[in-house]
Design a protein that fits this description.
- The complex is a heterodimer of chains A (237) and B (212).
- Chain A is 52% helix and 13% strand.
- Chain A has 237 residues and is an alpha+beta fold.
- Chain A has 2 domains: 5-163, Beta-Lactamase (2-Layer Sandwich), CATH 3.30.450.80; 177-231, Winged helix-like DNA-binding domain superfamily/Winged helix DNA-binding domain (Arc Repressor Mutant, subunit A, Orthogonal Bundle), CATH 1.10.10.
- In chain A, α7 (177-187) packs across α9 (203-217) and α8 crosses α9.
- The longest helix of chain A is centred in the middle third of the chain and has 29 residues, at 135-163.
- The radius of gyration of chain A is 20 Å and the shape is elongated.
- The model of chain A has no long low-confidence stretch (mean pLDDT 92).
- Chain B is an alpha+beta fold and 212 residues long.
- Chain B has a 7-stranded mixed beta sheet with strand order 1-2-3-4-5-7-6.
- The radius of gyration of chain B is 17 Å and the shape is globular.
- Chain B starts with a strand and ends in a 13-residue tail after the last helix.
- The chains are: A alpha+beta (237), B alpha+beta (212).
- The interface between A and B is medium-sized, with 36 and 32 residues.
- Chain A: It holds the Pfam family Autoind_bind.
Amino acid sequence: MTPSLDGILQQLECAEALEGLQTASVALRDHYNVAHIVYHWVSSSGQQYGCGTYSPEWVARYVEQAYLRVDPVVAGCYQKFHPVDWKRLDWSSKASRAFQKEAIEYGVGNQGFSIPIRGPNGQFALFTVNNDCSDEDWANFTETHRQHLIILSHAFNQKALELEPGRTPLAAQALSPREIDAMTLIAVGYSRAQVAVTLSISENTLRVYIESARHKLGALNTTHAVAKAIARGVIVV
Amino acid sequence: MIRYLYANQLHQFPKLARSMFLDRADQFKERLGWEVAVDRAGEERDDYDDQNPLYVIWEKPCGGHGGSMRLLPTVGRTMVNDHFIHLTDGVRIESPLIWECTRFCLARDTAPGTAAALMLAGGEVLRGFGVEHFVGVFDARMVRIYRHIGASPDILGSQGEGRDRISVGLWNFSPEAQARVAARAGISPDMSRMWFEHAFGQEPRLRKNRAA
């Protein structure tokens, strides 16, 4: 049985060492049944760290050849914040084409979807899902899963920041009274429409408050967020 | 046409970039009287322009700026969280699925339909990148413009009165609203999609219709 996303996220959150990121990438690869999951991070002091399911041979080759400077994925995502399908990158140069050919020889799939993340103080990370499949299958896959992938990419980054050596961990972002009200009413079984009326806000506004709370709680969806809020004593029902 | 440019790509379009920052000075300082900083070159810029935002810009046929808005993810620094949290019920709006849209600006002499074209482009961003909402700061004058183009935001909160009124609002994407806005902009959904795909690397689909 493949592990559930909730379970993977939970384990990632509890990780106390960088190995936890590695374990989570393997679990995610199996969950999505794709070729690879990779997370690559450059800290504010310029140190690099990578984890994921690429073969050790490819990682060694990549580092030894300083492919960071050739890789169109890195160039195409650096300083951006929108998710990037590899097909949309510029692979036209001779060096890029040779790089891609070699990557494929080392077991990297032909399709990729990378999410750039800009952290505090110049920290930059890339979270990538990679697979071997047709353009059509890939378009369906990314369209279906991209929001979860974006959420997962931020969970990886949050953990990487927490584990950065010498860094005092950021206090978890507290929920505001309004978010607590919204989550409490959801928890006791109100519909969204009822919560919106009770709080005198529009349903769109409510959606944004719930989405903010979900993000701060590091949850995958609203149900998961409510469960976490109860478990942590953030809301009492 | 619509261009989507990160701040670090603006140097490729010097005329467009310069006229955007000049038009922002004209709109926010001259016309609205906001306390914004205008530099010696006459350009209005703030701290958020240094965060490598994504600008959505209506480029006039002459290559100058017709209108624009500025997008940033709410997981980083945003104007709403830094300065307007009293207008959002104290909620710090923060999620990779919510982006901030600020500095919505229209040049004095721009074509009718520019505001609608920018909203249409905003819809492309939501749809294209899996973003759920925009949260934005806007002035009183925009309320009527947004209503006119069929893209009224949900208003979270406002401060000030009359033309000094500043509001924080929310937009989301619905295909119906997108169709309405496209009609107002006088731009076909295909054309809008093509500009977006052109900007983010996809080969333009209409290419085969053009002369080789």
